[in-house]
Write a structure and sequence with these properties.
The complex is a heterodimer of chains A (about 140) and B (about 150). Chain A has about 140 residues and is mainly alpha-helical. By secondary structure, chain B is an alpha+beta fold. The model of chain B has no long low-confidence stretch (mean pLDDT about 90). Chain B is about 20% helix and about 40% strand. Classes of the chains: A mainly alpha (about 140), B alpha+beta (about 150). Chains A and B meet through helix 3 and helix 5 of A and strand 2, strand 4 and strand 6 of B.
Amino acid sequence: MRPEDEPPDDAPRKLVSDLRALFPAARVPAEVDEAILGRARATLAARRRKRTLLRLVPLAAAATLVLWLALGRKERDTRRVASADVDGSGRVDIVDAYVLALRIEDRPDATEGRRFDQNGDGELDRRDVDLVASAAVRVGS
Amino acid sequence: MRVVKSWCAALALLLSGALVIARAAVQVSQQSETAERFLAVDVFVDSGDALLAAWQVELADTSGRARVVGVEGGEHAAFQEAPYYDPSALQRGRIVLASFHVGAELPSGRTRVARVHFLVSGGEPALEITPVTAATQGGGRIDIRTELSR
């Protein structure tokens, strides 16, 4: 019997005994009780898992976004063009183009090529040299 | 009386001749002021004892009478190809020329590195050349002297 089914303390005894005779306590088998409790526990556990997963979705999205930005930056860094002031003199002139041409003669590896790439194609070749030389002789309008 | 007439006739003849000559002189002068002509100028670079591997100069006409119409290479094998220049400098009075050579056969001393063709209107242009920079073999910067020769 549930506590709320108990009669109040000040209820007349006769009324209480008559009511108990009229509505005998329902007998629920222990297995049924256990089955109901088990199903309730399983439902609550499923809800908890679902809530946990829902909380993880924004975190996973944020992590994916951060990863994408980081990879994108790495890609952009790879494609970044080098400064045309190759010898660091503070200005772009024909000596920069000459120094760049000498590096090509030395057959640079891929890393070295990317380091001095001028046109953003990831390689160091004659086109990069021509680009620097053209910048050196440019006449303002 | 006859003598006076002869003198007057001679004077008139002289005056007419002088007028004709003066007018012709003015016409010639006007034609020479407006006539256009081509002028080829050789560009020399003197690197002294150092081998010349790269050079850059600026060439300008301060009179405004000359316009660049063409650029050729120089005399030494290292600089026989036309140097780098900005195509937009053509038809103007100022141009920057530059070239380099990565090979081992390099000139030293006074070398003709380029020839520039101008179209000149009117009188004599005032061409000036300024060295910008130069390098010897390997990329080390060197001082150079520059010179123009017509």
